Amino acid sequence: MQPSAPSHAADPQLLTVAISSRALFDLEDSHQLFEAEGIEAYAEHQREFEDELLSPGIAFPLVRKLLALNDGAPAASPRVEVILLSRNSSDTGLRIFNAIQHHGLAISRASFTSGAPTWPYIKPFGAQLFLSANPDSVRLALENGVAAATILPAAPIVRAARSDGPDQLRIAFDGDAVIFGDEGERVSREGGIDAFHRHERENAHEPLSVGPFRGFLDALHRLQAAYPPGDASPIRTALVTARSAPAHERVIRTLRAWGVRLDEALFLGGRPKGPFLDVFGADIFFDDSLHNIDSARQHVTTGHVPHGVSNLLP
């Protein structure tokens, strides 16, 4: 830890991402030990293997690309900060910081809660996004107004193929219930696709409501605006939605009203999203629908956003 590190909370262009230790590093064996034998066995295991290097986890490639955006920026004014949130204690968390230092990740701020929930610390750290391997933590974060997703791996063969991918950071979003509210999905479920298209035509000039990822999209846009558009930019974004014409117009007008830039917009009309995300080369794709997540995971790392009517619990 570096307690003397400068505060960046007032920097409007700083993108801050909070991530769980189990998403950043491969802690699945340790987690299974915790589930089976409890906290004492887990703590003993972590101390015993304190000097054994942890392998990269699901989110490791994404975090490396995020931190690479700081190349060329003054140390006191980074463009991106990654915060570690862990339910380890500071004692057992030493192994995690050893791995951070070994891999050369510029992560200095962290919260170790000794088993208590980590999500309450997201807002004090000023993070616009929380990524975790724990669905319950993600749900609680979303319920408390934080953009959050359960990060899920792509198929193993895809991860291997993408390990030496391009340096450009590529992030893709679903629209309804992620960037926007879920009213459209509710209309579709209640009245069918014809009712949905009719509703969208009638409200084409009315901006869509705000979804849980609007704040993160804004922060990403502010960072992206510092670079020229096109291939020279280190960030590329895409909207990948099941919508099609005529429901496209309201989306375009909403993004225009928000003043948000998305480099690509794919209106798929219900086609499987995975192959399109593969062509786009997404480092991560955020969607609320488990059906779309299943398709996407065959090609890219995904973040499930358990929000909206698609995720109502029985």
Layout of strands and helices, then pairs:
Layout: E1 15-20, H1 21-24, H2 28-37, H3 39-48, H4 60-68, E2 80-86, H5 94-102, E3 110-112, E4 129-132, H6 135-143, E5 148-152, H7 156-162, E6 169-173, H8 183-191, H9 193-202, H10 214-224, E7 235-241, H11 248-258, E8 264-267, H12 274-280, E9 284-287, H13 290-296, E10 302-304
Parallel strand pairs: 1-2, 1-4, 2-3, 4-5, 6-7, 6-9, 7-8, 9-10
Antiparallel strand pairs: 5-10
CATH architecture of the largest domain: 3-Layer(aba) Sandwich
Name of the CATH class of the largest domain: Alpha Beta
The helix/strand class is alpha/beta
Count of individual helical segments: 13
* E-strand count: 10
CATH topology of the largest domain: Rossmann fold
Q: Give the low-confidence spans.
A: 1-6
Order of helices and strands: EHHHHEHEEHEHEHHHEHEHEHE
Provide the spatial order of strands within the biggest beta sheet.
Answer: 3-2-1-4-5-10-9-6-7-8
Give the distance, in angstroms, between the N- and C-terminal Cα atoms: 43 Å
Count of structural domains: 2
**What is the beta-strand fraction?**
15-25%
Global mean pLDDT: 87
The named CATH superfamily of the largest domain: HAD superfamily/HAD-like
Tertiary shape: globular
> Mind summarizing the main beta sheet?
10 strands, mixed
